[in-house]
Design a protein that fits this description.
Blueprint (H helix, E strand, L loop, with lengths): L1 E8 L3 H10 L5 E6 L6 E9 L4 H12 L2 E6 L17 E6 L3 E6 L7
Helix pairs in contact: 1-2
The structure holds ligand 2BA.
């Protein structure tokens, strides 16, 4: 058995949690804070069988892994055109990224 401890962005947590719940995984969610940026993040704990580790890592990657996202820069005054409408510039930014720790678990007991 393994304990998966994963730290994800708060924004990524809701969809990741629903996917894990839908796939019938037991999850504990902790509200945590990154020690470097001092910003809130989410830590999830999952006790799972060894053979499920890759599947769970893949679900985490799909919902919290690094990915490209189009963002629009705030319009600069020079971008106001003759029709008085503003245009902002789309830029491709990298968002997300999860940290995963996989720990051995000797036994799970419910008493
Ligand atoms: P990430 O490496 O994506 O880490 C995101 C968050 O995951 C971290 O938040 C921390 O809460 C957790 N985390 C990552 N690796 C960990 C580990 N080995 N042990 C325990 N927790 C871990 P923050 O600490 O606020 O860090 C935010 C981002 O700042 C990090 O993104 C990384 O890009 C950078 N960073 C963190 N510590 C750094 C350091 N000592 N020097 C330079 N950059 C650092």
């Amino acid at each position: 058995m393994k304990m998966i401890l994963t730290i994800v962005r708060n924004e990524d947590a809701p969809l990741l949690l629903s996917e894990l719940n839908e796939k019938k995984y037991y999850v504990t969610k902790l509200a945590t804070t990154g020690g470097f940026l001092k910003k809130g993040n989410t830590t999830l704990l999952l006790g799972i069988e060894d053979e499920k580790v890759e599947e769970v890592c893949e679900i985490i990657r799909q919902h919290s892994g690094k990915r490209q996202q189009i963002m629009y820069t705030p319009p600069a005054p020079s971008n106001v055109n003759v029709y008085n409408s503003v245009s902002s510039v789309p830029i491709n930014v990298e968002v997300g990224g999860a940290t995963i720790f996989i720990l051995p678990v000797e036994e799970q007991r419910k008493v």
